[in-house]
Structure formats: structure tokens, C-alpha cells
Amino acid sequence: MDAQGRGRAEEIDPADQWVLNPDTGDYELRLNNSGGDSARASGVSAPRGSGRRGAPREGGGEGARRGREVPRQGGRRSSSGPRGQEAAASTENAAGRRKRKAPKARRKKALLWTGGVMAFLLVAVSAGGYWLYQHFNGNLSTVDIGDRGNKDVATANAPLNILVIGTDKRTGKGNEGYGDKGSAGHADTNILFHVSKDRTNATALSIPRDLVINIPECRTKQADGSEKTIPGTQNVRFNKSLGQEGRDPGCTMDTVKQITGLSVDHFMMVDFNAVKELSTAVGGVKVCLAKAVKDPDSHLDLPEGESKIQGEDALAFVRTRHSFGNKSDLDRIKVQQQFIGSMIRQMKSDDTLTSPTKLFKLADAATKALTVDTAIGTVPKLSSLAKELTKIDTKNISFVTLPVIDNPAEPKPITVVVDPVKAPQLFTMMQEDTSLTEVAAQKKAAKSKQDALLKGTKAAAADVRVDVYNGGVIAGGAQQTVTWLQNDKGVLKSTNKANAPAKAAKTTLEYAPNQADQARALAEMMGLPATAMKPGTKDAVGLQAMVLTLGADFKGAGTPITGPAKIDIPKSSADKAECAK
Known about the structure:
Layout: E1 18-20, E2 27-34, E3 37-40, H1 62-65, H2 82-88, H3 91-96, H4 103-110, H5 120-128, H6 130-139, E4 141-143, E5 160-167, E6 187-195, E7 202-206, E8 212-215, E9 218-221, E10 227-230, E11 233-237, H7 249-260, E12 266-270, H8 272-281, E13 285-289, E14 293-295, E15 300-302, E16 305-309, H9 312-319, H10 329-347, H11 350-353, H12 356-369, E17 371-373, H13 379-389, E18 397-401, E19 404-406, E20 416-418, H14 422-431, H15 440-454, E21 465-470, H16 477-488, E22 493-499, E23 508-511, H17 516-526, E24 533-535, E25 546-550, E26 571-573, E27 579-580
Parallel strand pairs: 4-17, 5-12, 7-18, 13-27, 21-22, 21-25, 23-24
Antiparallel strand pairs: 1-2, 2-3, 5-6, 6-7, 8-11, 9-10, 12-17, 13-16, 14-15, 18-26, 19-20, 23-25
Helix pairs in contact: 5-6, 6-12, 8-9, 8-12
């Protein structure tokens, strides 16, 4: 009786899918078994000397110890020697030596096949044993970024921020003509992948390489274990946050935190080979063009409509900047987002998830392509991360580009700077873990928090006493707010305290327990979100006022501070195919 004969096909134990190929003498993954014929997954065999050939399975009997027995297939053993023939004559006894798994346990293990690319590694380890674990683990490259990125992704009850960096370093076969010759590599393509606390949605924020920012001072780990501090640099392109002046990915993480206000938990860095190898491993990625393209610079040559690309063609597609839109880096980002969305759909498709050959190649290519921080630098840790990510429905993965404007310091702008109005709105939504897609659970939770905030008695406007500080980007914001509160809302006990000691990303209201009724009244007037409320532990004394500090999310007096339910910026979803224009 074969594996499928023991139960339903979806209950097959992946560990039973290794069989001996008599022509090569190697063990191979069996994709399917119908009528006793093995359909083997070519290219997945363990190499000679790896410990798989002739290796006995636990409890395999004397024939296995002599290296002549094929691993059990659904409880049956076969052998070319006399002992094997004798064993074959007693099928029931042979099957009885191995305890049959409960259907529920087999179903649970089989479901791992649909858990995503990296989750496949868990199955591969159980099916292929120690060699596969060492093989995939050996593929990974890691960078020690110190005390950054130590969050346990499998148990963390919090949002997750992963920085994906595509470097233009010339590594890998056939990449000599790309990037800057002799360069240590720049942060050429950058995506901050924000995963919500409840794992229902994610925002993939692309950061332009030509964004002019201040790179903060950062600590780097040296080869001898010592630390070196790299000085900060003012008014330079974002792509110099990596590789230049000795900066490592930890420096890029620090730069992203300074821009967005979001702490980055982990990084994943890839080079040109990643696009070529991953697109090939999945059998090609579907892309769509609104018009035919023949670009002499990137060598992209594709017809109008849908194409399936891999290898060099895939790399040319994501690198071209002269074929779409206004031929800028911002338009190239849109094309890259479309490509990544299509690759995600291909990776999660049945065509990939039901093919052990593709899964092996994809896991092999992914681990070879990745350089990660040491906190996730092993197969089990990456697998835990992958299982967290695969909880997200593709329709709830939003791709957006950091809102920017032309650099006003350049007569003919070729670089960009952060949009002072739209970017803070987006950062606030991400900081508050607000989805850019329609996720009912998040909307309900946000409304529940707001309702709880305003529940209770509210003080009369004339009794509200507040000092207003400006920590935002709008000049004169404190006076503007005080004028509005006094003239429009009747809060006569409001005082302009000028600039705050430091800039603030978000508006906050600090108040004492015996000022809660005043805080609720002011929160309702200004549209403050629950996250803005900062209650103290000691009662206010005498004429002590509450402290309102305006942040970068302050858009003007009378405009609600509450993060917008929707933001007016271009975005796309990973579940929808779009044609590059």
C-alpha cells in the first residue's frame, strides 16, 4: 500500500517522500506516488557523502544497517538482498514497526507545505535530516548589528518592522557590468516592511535612494569584535547610509528610524543575484507592460502585454529607469513594487507550493541570496519569521512610496526631500499600526479605543487649562492653536509656551488624574487619538495646567489630529496585477 493508500493525499507525511533512486544511488524527494510509480523531484537529491546514501532510518532493521534497504514508503520496505525479500514477505510486520501517525498530526505537518518559502525549510529539515539543515544554514550570511533587532518574531506581541535592502554591489556571476565598479555597495533599493501587531496586514514602504537626508551617527561591529562609531553626515542621499565610510546595514536601520520614527527590528539584504535566482526558482514571474519596451541601457526587451520573466530579464525589468513614467527613480520604484507583488503571488500559488522541486530551489536560492542580522541568522529563526509573514492575506499587503517633493535647494532638482505634510501623516498611521487596507478588525479596535477615551464626564471649555508647546513643523503652531481654542472653543485658560524643547513626531497631551475630565474635553475638541493621551500618576496642584505638545502630525488649528482613516497617496496591493506604464 503506498502513501496515498494509507489516507487522504493531503495527509502524506513529508518525511515519507524520500526514496532511493537505483540509477544514482541517491535519495530524492518523491513528488507523488500513484500506482506504485515514483514521480521524483529532480535536482533535489542529497549529494554523495552527505550521510543520506545508504543511511539507515531510525528503527529500519538490520537490512537498513547494511545500507541495502530503501526507506519505508507508507509502511512497506523493499530490498535487493535476501533479508530484504524476507522482510517484503512480511509487510504487516514491517509496517507495524513504525507507529502510524494520527491523521490530525499528519494533516498539521502536511499543512506546512502551504506556509511559504522559508516555512518550507522546516519540512525540508524533517524530511532531509541534518544535511538539509546544514545546507540551508550554510547558505546564510549574517551581520552583527549589536543590540538592534533582538525581537523574538515568533512570540512578539507587537508590530514588526523589517528593512529589505537591495545593494548595487557587484557580486555574483554575470554582475560585473552592474552597479559602481569597486564600490562596497549602496542602499540602492529600500523597502520598510511594516507588519501589524495582529498580523492581518502589512505596509511595504519604499524609500527612494535619491532622498536627501541627514545620516545619523551609528555604531558598527568590527571583525575583531570591537565597536566603531561612524560619524553622521548631513544633506546626503539615502543610498550612502550603507557601505560608504564603513557603514553597515545597522546604520541604514538607524537612518530609517530617524526618518520614520519607527524602530526597525531586522534587516534582510540582497544583491543583483537575488532577483535572478529567485525569479528562476519559481519558474518565472508574470509582468505586464502597457507598451512594448526595448531599453539599450538595461537591455530590457519585452512586448506589450503580459510576459513571464526570469534571470537576467527579471533583473533588467527591476533596474530599468528609462522605460516607464518620467524615467525617474520614483517610477522605477513603482515597477519594482509591481514585480515584488507578482513574485509574492507566484510564491504563494499552488503551482509553487505543491512542487517539492520548486520549493527546494526557492528555499536554496532565498537562503543563498540573503544577508540578515544575527538575530534571525539561522534556519529555525527565519522559518519562524516566515510563518508570521504568511499569516497576511496578499490583498492586505499595501505598497507605497515615501511621499517626497523636489529638493528646493537645487535649481534643477535631481534629488528629493521628505514631503513635510503627507509623510508625517503616513508615519503616524504606521506608528499607530493603522492599516492602509480595509481591515475590519483594525477599524473596530480603533473605534473602541476612541470610544473608551471619550467615555466619562467632560469639563466645560471655560474650565480647561492647558499650556501649548510647538514641537511640529508648522511655524507658529502653538499660537495658532491657542487663538483657535480661545476664539472658537472658549478655552480661555490656554497659553502659548512657544517651541517645545525638542521636535516631536506625534502630538501628546499630558495630564494628571484629577484633570481627566479636562483632557477628555480637549481631546474631543482637537480630535486627539487615544495614543496621544499621556495620563500621569500624581494629581495636579493649584493652577497647574495640562501640557499639549504639537507634533509633526499637527496639520493646523481645527484639523483633527487623529490619524486619517485613509491617506491621499498612491498605493497598490500585492493581490492585484498592474501594467507598468
